[in-house]
Specification:
This protein is of the alpha+beta class and 321 residues long. It has three domains: 2-194, Jelly Rolls (Sandwich), CATH 2.60.120; 204-248, Arc Repressor Mutant, subunit A, CATH 1.10.10; 253-315, Arc Repressor Mutant, subunit A (Orthogonal Bundle). It is built from twelve helices and eleven strands. It has helices at 15-32, 121-130, 152-164, 171-187, 192-199, 204-217, 225-232, 236-247, 251-269, 274-280, 286-297, 301-315; strands spanning 2-4, 37-40, 46-51, 58-62, 65-71, 73-78, 81-85, 89-92, 97-105, 112-118, 146-149. The strands form two sheets. Strands 2-3-10-5-8-11 form a six-stranded antiparallel beta sheet. Strands 1-7-6-9-4 form a five-stranded mixed beta sheet. A hairpin with a 2-residue loop joins β6 (73-78) and β7 (81-85). α3 runs antiparallel to α4 (171-187). The radius of gyration is 20 Å and the shape is globular. The chain starts with a strand and ends in a 6-residue tail after the last helix. Residues 4-13 and 136-140 have low confidence and may be disordered. GO terms for molecular function: DNA-binding transcription factor activity; sequence-specific DNA binding. Pfam families: AraC_N (PF06719), HTH_18 (PF12833). Keywords: DNA-binding, Transcription, Transcription regulation. It comes from Roseimicrobium gellanilyticum. Residues 1-22 are annotated as: Disordered.
């Protein structure tokens, strides 16, 4: 398994100002967010997270997003890749990814604080068209999970969005403007090529997104790669190449991880037994489901769900970090 760690924090002349912004932002988040878990906001696409201790691995589908950590650290597993993130870098994804994440560093005195801003493809496309930014080529850009430097300007925009929550009457007018600024700064960053791929119709990213959409909507159906390739407008070999380049997984591996994560949610949220949950997501063999579930989450379904129930008594319903 490969492990990719973030680079050292910025040591340029802007670093002291950035650290001041980070401290102020953390203080505001601590004042605003009480308790633990996921905190949706009145601002579209924006979610904050707080955890007072390390968490067990949680599997979920991460939409195209920018993810930032302001305090603490977490590990994200995607296929055979392992990424560890802290506040020195943000990361961006351009397609839906079935990830497994866990908070590594957090305590009651220094809780984990994170943010996810889901990317608006249409808004990014408008920005690319309206600006003088170079157009993205129809080629793959960068890593599956792209890392970027947390700049002082980006932190300032996030801070203004957080402050906007204190004036909810201005959210409909001002939040789209601040989000446009964040998108523009992302487009101008080292992650720009990946962000621009989201907006390019007919690009491999756009075609693979169509294939992923079918998998999501037909989770309990048999996946025929030939049909998926036809839907994406690609040959089978081209589909495999671009699918793995964008997700680090084959289509069948992607479906399996999504099925297992969905089954886990069904057992937690709807209290289904393992066999019923397995059938609901398309498994025909309960024993195969149990084996693959244990490989993904580190424990068989019954033991894993008991541990999640124990955690939920401490922090409420299991949340995505």
């Amino acid at each position: 398994m490969s492990t990719r760690k973030p680079k050292a924090p910025d040591t340029t002349s802007h670093a002291p100002a950035r650290r001041t912004s980070e401290t102020s932002l953390v203080d505001r988040l601590l004042d605003r967010i009480r308790g633990q878990g996921r905190f949706d906001t009145g601002i579209p696409h924006l979610t904050f997270y707080r955890f007072d201790g390390p968490t067990s691995p949680s599997g979920y589908l991460l939409e195209p997003s920018i993810c930032m950590i302001f305090q603490g650290s977490k590990k994200v597993l995607l296929g055979e890749q392992s990424h560890t993130f802290d506040g020195s870098r943000f990361f961006v994804t351009s397609v839906d990814l079935p990830v497994i994440a866990e908070v590594l560093e957090a305590s009651p005195k220094q809780p984990y604080l994170g943010m996810v801003l889901t990317l608006d493809r249409m808004e990014i496309a408008r920005l690319v068209m309206e600006s003088s930014l170079p157009h993205a080529k129809n080629s793959m850009a960068g890593e599956v999970i792209e890392l970027g430097e947390v700049s002082r300007q980006l932190l300032s925009a996030v801070m203004r969005m957080l402050e906007l929550l204190e004036e909810p009457e201005f959210i409909p007018l001002l939040s789209p403007l601040i989000q446009r600024e964040i998108y523009l700064r992302l487009l101008m960053s080292e992650c720009g090529p990946k962000i621009r791929q989201i907006a390019v119709g007919g690009s491999p990213t756009h075609q693979i997104s169509r294939a992923i959409g079918w998998i999501k909507s037909n989770l309990n159906k048999r996946l025929r790669v030939e049909d998926l390739a036809s839907l994406a407008g690609m040959s089978v070999s081209t589909l495999h190449h671009h699918f793995r380049s964008l997700t680090s997984l084959s289509p069948l591996q992607f479906q399996k991880q999504l099925r297992l994560s969905r089954a886990r949610l069904l057992m937690v949220d709807e209290h289904l037994d393992a066999s019923t949950a397995a059938f609901e997501v398309g498994y025909e063999s309960p024993s195969q489901f149990s084996r693959e579930y244990g490989r993904m989450f580190g424990a068989p379904p019954l033991r894993d769900i008991k541990e999640l129930a124990r955690q939920s008594s401490r922090i409420g319903k299991p949340q995505y970090p």
